[in-house]
Design a protein that fits this description.
It contains 15 helices and 32 strands. The protein is α+β, with helices and mostly antiparallel strands and about 800 residues long.
Length: about 800
């Protein structure tokens, strides 16, 4: 087969290229589809003969995203692709759901569709390419398939619709909707939105359908060039005579058994089974064909009975009105140890939903073609067999469970608070305890209530409702809150979730050829009324987040630190951060932006951890005053530690107002000293002690009344003009000099400094305070502040003992008045 190629340009310049005849030529059908640098191969193969002994269509769909497509090698010990990721499973479902109803009724041949991602750029998501490739492969093959379909994703950026938005465009979109359809209608919708209105969603679907028609035309063009003739298939013919005989025999009894208002679900199933068992007992035991025939027509009678009741008699199996919701009961704070919980029951569907709050480190790490990222919100859905009264193996999570969980997750994620408002990683788990239709929407309602119960401030409560459709010819009925039988025998499963403002998630699957705009619009309007009614009931139970979180939930505080302080907080080999965790019991997460989240259920441990982090990562600010510790002396000054790991230089000229000859005369290692940050130049911090002394003196001069100042130095003991002035006691000296031959006059009397028991420490000037004015102290002669003399009768004389050399003042005087 030679290579054939067609292309189609979509709105916005996006281009899809369809190719066949070059790869996978032994498959029934194969198509290679390219957009940008993203390339996906899809194949379709069906066995030549039908599979015997089954009453369903054996279709399998697989989708694989190879890591080499993005230029990566798989992480972990096993360097090859393993089990499908959640994204791959969801894409499998998006391929399966639109194509399954388009195979002819009664087709029982094993059929497999495989889509493989060969190349992936960082702009175009391969999932929509895979759906189109699968549709093209089926159209090109000889497998019976009733219609050619195409798929597009629609985003809404700045109020404008965008076809197949890139990853970066999707980050800014308010609508993310995947639409699959054929030229006559829509067959599948999968959507997430940020509280958009029904009108916007409908407009997006119509916009998508116009582009889908272009894709369908391109595929049909390629089929015209390289398509295979479809194999012969004859659909099974219904024996209407046998059917009518069966209906006349048990029709009325079956109608009564299917009345779920009269009989509970399990009782109804038991009655239906009893009628069938009675019929089987009448058949020859050695005739398996008769038993199989009975099973086929008995099931057909059940389906037709349901459809006739809805479309002709206008009644539902449980006798509800078409827009009526089943009885709802809600309980919150159901479980004592979990962080948030809700039990949501709607009719015979019941979901126990729990919310667990964690830290940033608890987020799910994901590898994708976009790159590595963390997922801070997860919603997991579990469907144990007992929920429908059956037995079964509980091995792993099935595709249906993953799909339902993803739908509910989309519905809730649109209303979550930002990371700044709530730094928690959140995990929701919905355990379905009973099921009779719409368990995924029960999960949405329960998740909203559980989050409120956990104290999470959502942008709005979210409710979900499942709608159904039964269509016979031109007659149809749209059903609100469908039960199990209405889902099974109906033509549509249409789920809508949202707030009072708008839609947050939407999913539609249909079993008929297509859905018109009229039906879709009516279904959305009916769903909106039901959603608002549900929200009223939910608000009556819990209308907002609880003000107090569970005692077992972590308290999280978030602080920002400079990025160059991250390594200081972590420490060598993580030693520092591990030490804080061991010391406080808190959990600490640090990201590359400098965001630090500290979590603990113990308030004291949380407070202590934040204090330690603050000390380690503090950054000095120009003009601020700090109490530091002298860690090293040098000839040109002293290095003062402001915070652990952060030192500044106190230059010798900034130590005191007077001239300092040697740093060691003023300071010793280990001294605590108040300093002011003058400047920061790169990693160098310039400090000053002198500036604070001047500022404190200015405060004293301004605050002390002139008449109360009586501080002077006797003229006979004043230093000479040529000598450096005596060092005053100043504001920031923890270690005072032990000797200085000068007399300081202070109002109130006279005392000796050394060993003087008369010294009143409470009234001693304290210059190691940042704020507050110490008592009035004069300056040495020649360098004073110009105070008027006080009355000598009220003076106390403070005299330094002779012979005491300078004790670190650098300006002390000896007994002869000379420089010591």
């Amino acid at each position: 087969m030679s290579k054939h190629e067609v292309s189609v340009e979509l709105a916005g310049g996006k281009r899809l290229v369809f190719e066949t005849g070059r790869m996978a030529k032994q498959a029934s059908g194969a198509a290679l589809v390219t957009t940008g640098e993203t390339v996906v191969l899809a194949t379709a193969v069906a066995s030549p003969d039908p599979r015997e002994g089954i009453d369903f269509f054996p279709l399998t769909v697989d989708y694989r995203e190879y890591t080499y497509a993005g230029g990566r090698i798989p992480g972990g010990f096993i360097k090859r692709e393993g089990r499908p990721s959640e994204k791959e499973v969801l894409t499998c479902r998006q391929i399966d759901r639109p194509i399954r109803p388009l195979f002819p009724d009664g087709f029982r041949n094993e059929t497999q569709v495989i889509a493989l991602v060969f190349s992936a750029d960082k702009e175009n998501d391969p999932d929509v390419v895979g759906i189109n490739a699968a549709a093209c492969a089926l159209a090109l093959s000889d497998i019976p398939f009733n219609a050619t379909v195409g798929a597009v994703r629609v985003g809404r950026v700045d109020g404008e619709f965008v076809i197949n938005p890139t990853y970066s465009e999707r980050a800014a979109t308010t609508v993310n909707i995947m639409v699959v359809g054929h030229k006559d209608g829509i067959v599948m919708i999968e959507s997430g939105a940020k509280e958009e209105t029904e009108e916007v969603i409908l407009a997006a679907i119509e916009f998508a359908h116009a582009e889908i028609k272009k894709i369908v035309a391109a595929i049909d063009e390629l089929v015209g060039k390289a398509g295979k003739p479809k194999r012969a298939f004859t659909a099974p013919v219904t024996d209407e005579t046998y059917y009518e005989e069966l209906k006349s025999k048990i029709g009325d009894r079956l109608k009564d058994a299917l009345d779920t208002k009269k009989h509970a679900k399990t009782d109804s199933y038991a009655l239906v089974k009893k009628i069938k068992d009675e019929l089987v007992a009448e058949l020859p035991a050695d005739d398996p064909t008769a038993k199989k025939r009975l099973s086929t027509y008995y099931e057909l009678l059940r389906e037709r009975t349901f459809r006739e009741q809805v479309t002709k008699e206008r009644i539902r199996p449980d006798r509800r009105a078409f827009d009526e919701i089943r009885e709802i009961t809600i309980e919150t704070k159901v479980l004592p140890r979990v962080h948030g919980s809700a039990l949501f029951t709607r009719g015979e569907t019941q979901a126990l939903v729990t919310a667990t709050l964690g830290t940033q480190d608890d987020g799910q790490r994901l590898e994708s073609y976009e790159g590595e990222k963390k997922k801070p919100f997860m919603l997991h859905y579990n469907f144990p067999p007992f929920s429908v009264g059956e037995t079964g193996r509980m091995t792993g999570t099935g595709r249906r469970e993953i799909g339902h969980g993803a739908l509910a997750e989309r519905a809730i994620s649109a209303v979550l608070p930002s990371a700044e408002e709530s730094p928690y990683t959140i995990r929701i788990v919905s355990d379905i305890l009973e099921s009779n239709g719409s368990s995924s929407m029960a999960s949405v309602c329960g998740a909203s209530l559980a989050l409120y119960d956990a104290g999470i401030a959502l942008k709005g409560a979210v409710a979900g409702i499942a709608m159904g459709l039964v269509k016979e010819g031109d007659e149809y009925a749209i059903l609100t809150d469908i039960a199990g039988a209405e889902d099974h025998y109906g033509d549509m499963d249409f789920k809508v979730a949202g707030t009072r403002k708008g839609i947050t998630a939407l999913q539609m699957d249909i079993k008929i050829g297509g859905l018109t705009r009229e039906i879709l619009q009516q279904a959305m309007e009916q769903a909106k009324r039901a959603r608002l009614s549900l929200l009223d009931k939910m608000d009556a139970a819990l209308d907002g987040p609880r003000t107090e979180r569970s005692a077992y939930a972590p308290r999280i505080e978030t602080v920002m630190i400079p990025t160059d302080k991250i390594r200081d907080l972590i420490g060598k080999g993580g030693a520092t951060i591990r030490g804080i965790i061991e010391q406080t019991g808190a959990k600490i997460d640090v990201d590359d932006t400098g965001r630090v989240s500290v979590a603990s259920s113990d308030a004291e441990g949380l407070k202590k951890a934040l204090e330690i982090i603050g000390n380690i990562t503090a950054v000095p600010e120009i003009g601020k005053v700090y109490l530091g510790k002298v860690v090293r002396l040098a000839e040109f000054g002293a290095f003062v530690e402001l915070f652990p790991g952060t030192d500044g230089l106190l230059h010798i000229s900034e130590i005191a107002e007077h001239r300092v000859k040697e740093v060691k005369d003023e300071l010793r290692e280990g001294d605590q000293v108040m300093v002011k940050v003058l400047a920061i130049e790169g990693n160098r911090i310039k400090l000053s002690r002198k500036a604070l002394i001047k500022e404190q003196k200015a405060k004293l001069a301004h605050s002390a009344p002139a008449e109360s100042e009586a501080v002077e130095i006797s003229a006979s003991e004043a230093p000479s003009a040529s000598a450096p002035p005596a060092r005053p006691r100043h504001e920031f000296d923890e270690r005072q000099p032990t000797s200085n031959q000068s007399t300081i006059l202070i109002e109130g009397g006279e005392f000796e400094e050394e060993g003087g028991a008369e010294f009143d420490e409470e009234n001693e000037p304290n210059f190691n305070r940042v704020e507050g004015a110490p008592v009035a102290v004069g300056a040495p002669a020649g360098g004073g502040v110009g105070r008027p003399p006080a009355n000598n009768n009220n003076r106390r004389r403070r005299r330094r003992r002779p012979g005491g050399g300078s004790g670190g003042s650098g300006g002390g005087r000896g007994p002869g008045g000379g420089q010591a």
